[in-house]
Amino acid sequence: MMSKDRIIFHIDVNNAFLSWTATKLLSEGFNIDIRKIPSVIAGDENKRHGIVLAKSPIAKKYGIKTAETLYLARKKCPKLKVFPPDHEYYVKMSKKLFDYLYQFTPDIEIFSIDECFLDMTNTKYLYNNLLDLAYKIKDEIYDKFGFTVNIGVANNKLCAKMASDFEKPNKVHTLYEDEIEKKIWPLDVSELFMIGKSTSEKLRMLGINTIGELAQSDILLLRKHFKNQAVFLKDSANGKDDSPVEAYSDSNKCLSVSETFEADIKDINKIKSILLGQVYKISENLRSQNLYTQTVAVTIKTYDFKNFSKQRKLYTATNSSKDIYINICDLFEEIWDGTKVRNIGVRLSNFVGKRNKQVSIFDGDDEGDDKIDYIIDNIKDKYGCDSITIASLMKKDN
Ligand SMILES: [Mg+2]
């Protein structure tokens, strides 16, 4: 299929944590809309020294930044109002939003708690004008739930994501193929989706400051400095992306674990040992249900609150911790550029009940691995996964 024929929406809640807390407070009779005063959502002051998780537009005008300490934020604006996050409520609002969106297409990839991709390619014939539909969805979300979203409309996920990030809040933007030069080439290279801080700093040292400069840069130069990532970087700057919208299939079930750290982590060995603990925990859960996974994904949130995620379809369904761990480490190394991470997680989806044995030539002596897993399940406490949360997400049941 020509990429022009695809139509992808990226829907992103504006200032999700602050907006959701605002709607909750209003519904409880609180008479101030905290979106309209200098306010922030900030975590536990003792644990992370009160890191700012979200800020209102007025707080932003005072120079308050996401991920900075509450101490610093209060110095910038002494009359700042501070509210704690309510993750349980955020998950509820998130689910409400996604459930609402399933009426427009079953092909929805949930990217984070407040963002998703809708593949409208197969349903576009149902609607006269997809841009009108995007406006309608945006307005209906506000009417129904009381918070605003941005919607990016484009021919692939990368461009839809970039488009939804243009002017906020409460806006619909397009970024079709023929708009790429005009709309994203002038932007700073750090604005490119899936580019971390280390990569943009490295690019800058090579004299590449804008997305346009990256798009037109010498592939040999990029290859020298970024190896296998070179083509991906150049393609991204040209708005090229053919990754599919990965809807959770097979009863839309998904298992995920993730962990936010007390202090940001940069040490790859430490990260890998955390991933290992998560993989054991999650694959144990899978085995206890007699399920095998066909899709594995790793998710990263960097210290500056950027989300990265990559998933892979496996040749053979598996519930082996070792198989899953090898794939997770691969994926992690593909998307991590050395930026300090604040949260990492593992997600499994696309489950089957029985292993499809014949396909893979990569399967070794997996009877042995399976046995080891079952032994490990019985000594799981050793891995200290107490702070890991397991969530069965987003069932499409409306
Ligand atoms: Mg958002």
3D architecture notes:
By secondary structure, the chain is α+β, with helices and mostly antiparallel strands. The chain has helices spanning 16-27, 57-61, 70-76, 87-101, 130-145, 157-164, 180-183, 197-205, 211-215, 219-226, 229-237, 268-288, 321-335, 366-378, and strands at residues 8-13, 39-42, 52-55, 81-83, 108-112, 115-119, 149-154, 172-175, 254-265, 292-302, 307-318, 341-352, 389-392. The chain has a five-stranded mixed beta sheet with strand order 5-6-1-7-8. The chain is globular, with a radius of gyration of 22 Å. The two termini are 31 Å apart. 36% of the residues are buried. The chain binds magnesium ion.
What order do the helices and strands come in, and which of them pair?
Blueprint: E1 8-13, H1 16-27, E2 39-42, E3 52-55, H2 57-61, H3 70-76, E4 81-83, H4 87-101, E5 108-112, E6 115-119, H5 130-145, E7 149-154, H6 157-164, E8 172-175, H7 180-183, H8 197-205, H9 211-215, H10 219-226, H11 229-237, E9 254-265, H12 268-288, E10 292-302, E11 307-318, H13 321-335, E12 341-352, H14 366-378, E13 389-392
Parallel strand pairs: 2-4, 7-8
Antiparallel strand pairs: 1-6, 1-7, 2-3, 5-6, 9-12, 9-13, 10-11, 10-12
Helix pairs in contact: 10-11, 12-13
Please sum up the structure shown:
The protein has helices at 16-27, 57-61, 70-76, 87-101, 130-145, 157-164, 180-183, 197-205, 211-215, 219-226, 229-237, 268-288, 321-335, 366-378; strands at 8-13, 39-42, 52-55, 81-83, 108-112, 115-119, 149-154, 172-175, 254-265, 292-302, 307-318, 341-352, 389-392. The chain is an alpha+beta fold and 398 residues long. Helix 10 crosses helix 11 (229-237) and helix 12 (268-288) packs across helix 13 (321-335).
